[in-house]
Amino acid sequence: MRFVPYPETEALPNIIVDGPRNAATAIALSHWARSGTPPELRADTSTEIVFNYFDHPRFRVQAEAASNNHFDEDGLLGIFALLDPATGERHRDLLIDTSRAGDFDVYRRRDAARIAFVLAAYSDSDISPLPARIFQLPYPSQTAELYVHVLELLPHLLTDPGRFRSYWEAEDRTLTEHEALLEKGLITIEERPDLDLAVVRTPEGVGRCHRYAIHSRTERSRVATIQGDRLEFHYRYEGWVQMASRRPLLRVDLSSLVDELNLEQPAGRWVFDDVESIIPRLRLEGDAPPAVPADAVLKRIEHHLRIGAPAWNPYD
Fold first, then answer.
1. Do 159 and 38 share a structural domain?
2. Is the pLDDT assigned to residue 95 strictly greater than 90?
3. Residue 18 Cα distances to 37, 69, 124, 169, 191, angstroms
4. What are the distances in angstroms from CA 207 to CA 6, 174, 176, 177?
């Protein structure tokens, strides 16, 4: 089996990892909604699903190609484990931990967080050491080039993350600083389990708290962050995919709340991304002060979460 760019797999028996199947797909190993992955193989990340595929031989298929329609950490790590099962098994725990870091901003081993930082840097056109021409290609070609280059790099990264320090050091430092603020109680997390909501309060001047610091300390899939008078809310990625370890509460569309807030906002504009986006956010754009205090906005969010109908359901 070999990696093949996604557009070319329609003519080849294939396994799709972390993306949508096509007409020639023998099996999809993906936590995406409506992926068709067998229930017996499901796990929180697609990388875990690949390992479950090897653990359950009755699901094995004949396929020439492995692919994905987008580049991200989970897709990369899952394809790597599929193409090189022996190396993948040796690094199984680290690969799974890193896939969770890349997708969900959570980690157990610090090396997993650092590897995820490196992989994100390699796919960032502003800082990637890969040839600039790659990021000028159409997205399907860009995705294929990233897979080819980073699959080759991955064995070195797994065994010696320190060699890539320049690509993780700055973000790792920020993560350490924000974790220290959490330990000191200067950043706080209050959980509302009935709403699957975490309320994060951060002091002025800290900037946006590192998501790895927050998400690794709460499983709540809805996060409201308050800093001074401003509030920002987001649904975590866990609510977009088919989770196996737990089921986050289904997402509620907050568009009507945005309409309410904008009636009271003389300057600036409240916006909410599409509820079907991977990580939709509600926030006030612009520098104007919010007309509604942050805690009052929070109460309205809680109200809408409590009464709103589910607007996105990834489960079969």
1. yes
2. yes
3. 10, 8, 20, 28, 30
4. 38, 10, 14, 11
Nearest to 115 by CA among 101, 134, 129, 128: 101
pLDDT of residue 266: 92
Out of 76-80, 120-124, 288-292, pick the least confident: 288-292
Q: Which residue has the tokens 């580049």?
A: 71
As a 3-state breakdown, the chain gives helix, strand, coil percent values, each rounded to 5, of 45, 15, 35
Token look-up 């986006």 returns 277
CA atoms of 66 and 272, how far apart (whole Å): 36
Question: Which pTM was predicted?
Answer: 0.94
Tell me the pLDDT tens digit for each residue of 49-65.
999 999 999 999 999 99
> In the structure, what pLDDT confidence band is assigned to residue 316 with cuts at 50, 70 and 90?
confident
| Domain containing residue 306: CATH number | 3.10.310
Please identify, among 169, 197, 224, the residue that sits at the C-terminal boundary of a domain: 169
Domain boundaries, position 303: 185-312
Residue 248 inside a domain? The answer is: yes
Write phi, then psi, for 268 (nearest 5 degrees): 85, 180
Strand residue runs (E) in 228-279 = 230-235, 251-252, 269-272
CB-based contact 223:207 (threshold 8 Å): no
